[in-house]
Amino acid sequence: MKIFLDTANLEQIRQANALGAIEGVTTNPSLLAKEKGDWRKTVRQICKEIDGPVSVEVIATESPAMLAEARDLVKIAPNVVVKVPVTLEGLKTIKELHLRGIETNATLVFSANQALLAAKAGATFVSPFIGRLDDIGHDGMQLVQDLVSIFRNYELPTQVLAASIRSASHFSQAALLGADAITIPLSVLLDLTKHPLTDIGLAKFLSDWAKK
Ligand code: E4P
């Protein structure tokens, strides 16, 4: 499972990158809006920092304007992946970008049907939003399981990118289910390193060593 960081914050990206686990970044308009300064410059810096796909979302909602934005986004850096919502206009856009050899991340996926259509249109990644489904009383992780099975059934090359991740438990469940990739906030990445027995064990080793 590839691990991406879900942020547009350079400091967080540098902190996560130092751990050697990060293979890409996903941004979205809400995350980029939180960062000060010119968003293009921020995206360019992120793309330099990370040797892997960096998802950047289109803001337009009609396909011709989405395509124009996408052409602009991929000029920023070669590792930009164009994030497109799975609306009707978004699906048209994904298809056109696929025909032009541009990688896409179909976002705001909440059903297997949406994901299957995005895969048919040629999406590189589909992003099921686990946490947001859990928030409304659905089982977000069930969607990951469904997508992994469906894409395997039909040998679809589109990668399942588990998104809207809220906990370390989401992370291990997605890995067990065979998600191709996951995008996590820094807080979840840091939680993955924690175990009380590691802390207790280290404290004991150090206190025993101090008695030598
Ligand atoms: C995915 O690419 C999105 O940026 C993200 O995972 C959304 O997560 P949220 O539901 O925590 O905002």
Walk me through the structure:
This protein is an alpha/beta fold and 212 residues long. The chain has one domain (2-210): Aldolase class I (TIM Barrel). It has eleven helices and eight strands. It has helices at 10-17, 29-33, 39-49, 63-76, 88-99, 112-121, 130-135, 140-153, 168-177, 186-192, 196-210, and strands at 2-6, 24-26, 54-57, 80-85, 104-109, 125-128, 159-162, 181-184. β1 (2-6), α1 (10-17) and β2 (24-26) form a beta-alpha-beta unit. α1 (10-17) packs parallel to α3 (39-49). The model has no long low-confidence stretch (mean pLDDT 98). Bound molecules: erythose-4-phosphate. Residues 6, 26, 28, 107, 127, 129, 131-132, 163-164, 183 line the site of erythose-4-phosphate.
Detail the topology: elements first, then pairings.
Blueprint: E1 2-6, H1 10-17, E2 24-26, H2 29-33, H3 39-49, E3 54-57, H4 63-76, E4 80-85, H5 88-99, E5 104-109, H6 112-121, E6 125-128, H7 130-135, H8 140-153, E7 159-162, H9 168-177, E8 181-184, H10 186-192, H11 196-210
Parallel strand pairs: 1-2, 1-8, 2-3, 3-4, 4-5, 5-6, 6-7, 7-8
The chain binds erythose-4-phosphate.
Q: How would you describe this structure in keywords?
A:
single chain; 212 residues; alpha/beta; TIM Barrel; eight-stranded parallel β-barrel; 11 helices; binds erythose-4-phosphate
CATH topology category name: TIM Barrel
The order of strands across the largest sheet is: 1-2-3-4-5-6-7-8
Q: How much beta, percentage-wise?
A: 15-25%
How many separate domains? 1
- The CATH architecture can be named as Alpha-Beta Barrel
Number of helices: 11
Tell me the name of the CATH homologous superfamily.
Answer: Aldolase class I
How many strands?
8
From N to C, what is the helix and strand string?
A: EHEHHEHEHEHEHHEHEHH
